[in-house]
Amino acid sequence: MATISSLGIGSGLDLSSLLDQLESAERQQLTPIVRQQQSYQAKISAFGKLENALASFQEAAAKLADADSFGAVKAEVSEESLTVSTGEDAVVGSYDINVTQKARSYSIAAAGLADKTGNLGAGTIGFTLGNGDSFSVDVSQSESSLEDIRDAINDADAGVTASIIDDGSGQPYRLVLSSSETGTDAAIASVDFGSLGGSLALDAATEVQARNAQLTINGIDIESQGNRVEGAIQGVTLNVAETGTATLDITRDTETIGKSVKSFVSAYNSLQQTLSTLTDYNSDSGSAGTLLGNATVRGVETRLRSLMSDTVEGGGFSMLSDLGISLQLDGTLELDEETLDDAVANNLGDLSGFFAGDEGFATRLDAALDGMLEDGGTLDNATEGLERSIEGLGERYNRTEARIGETIARYRAQFAQMDSLVAQMNSTSSYLTQQFEALSAQLDQ
Fold it and tell me: Is the pTM of this model over 0.70?
């Protein structure tokens, strides 16, 4: 049987081209399947955009659902003698601080040596710290130079650091030992060079005593091992920079609290913009949003409208509109900043209760958004359904393609048979023509 490459040779017909046209026509059956797959994939992508917008909105709502957000404070220091950082448990207050002494670490140098690379001999160096802790460093014969001893102490990482200073004298190389931290507890109380004592000896004239930070807060004496003072004021960390006096004022951070509410409004409006883009219809161009008419999206929009109109009982504020936040006809929120600023400045307790109470506005909203965004939630179920549909279409595509292949194979076999039959008929026709011509020539004689 003739192959596709020889189709038409016997008959003289362009059967290969005809077979290509038939295959192209058959493959048109795949086009709607591919289009539907692309449509479902576009919807999955659109649901991803909606999920991101909802997640951003939930993040803003969750912040307002946390009562600690309404306890935010800010610290102001009058002088540069210290800096301050505050934690969540910091409380409003004013403090007069007088730093009389900064903390510093202990250090002492050994007498100088002429060579820092020559071995000094094996031995053990023992250290005792101000808090009573002790440790030792073993030095081998082959690694006992001043540089090796320095490295061994640093490798021990036990509270003492070592360095070498060149003082420019005839025996310039001095081993300098320093406590790793400030304060008397971390100070080096004693050093025992053991068998290395013949080569190494401390120079008392170079000793720098450790000191603790000392300060008063509202007349109360405070002492700290370091210049970072934690716990002296609840929720506040003081970082001592220099001696001197300063006033620390911790006040309610109404600006940050107001920004949290404004961010909530902004996140909701961004969510509405995303929903509008995904469900819009342009009558002039006939173009439609990817999720126009989608039942899941309609459910999300309905739920959001209901939530944003919720009331909260038992407090000074019951609705968003009481805070200057009004729902517009297009679904967005409009903020009256003056009304909100007044609520933050004068009714912070009621504001916190409205958003962050057990049945607060943001608390309920956060829980509802969880139901939309969590695994097995509203959006997850919608995208999983689309993914299953895409998988089903893929199987349908493969079945259709296999059926097309079988159909084309049948056409090819039929064309080959026809080509062979026509070739045989042409051959018979040629033979008969020759015979008739020969007979006619004999009769003419």
Answer: no
The one-letter code for the residue type at 183 is G
Cβ(15)–Cβ(413) below 8 Å: no
| Torsion region of 442: left, alpha or beta (phi above 0 gives left; psi -120 to 50 gives alpha) | alpha
Residue 40: exposed, middle, or buried by beta-carbon count in 10 A (0-12, 13-18, 19+)?
buried
What are 32's two structure tokens? 């709607």
Q: Which residues contact 436 (CB under 8 A, 6 or more apart)?
A: none
Q: Give tens-digit pLDDT for 197-248.
A: 999 999 999 999 999 999 999 999 999 999 999 989 999 999 999 999 999 9
Cα separation, 179 vs 304, in Å, equals 61
Residues 6+ apart with CB under 8 A from 74: 86, 250, 251, 252, 253, 255, 256
Cα separation, 295 vs 303, whole angstroms: 12
The answer to whether residues 242 and 102 touch, using CB atoms and an 8 Å cutoff, is yes
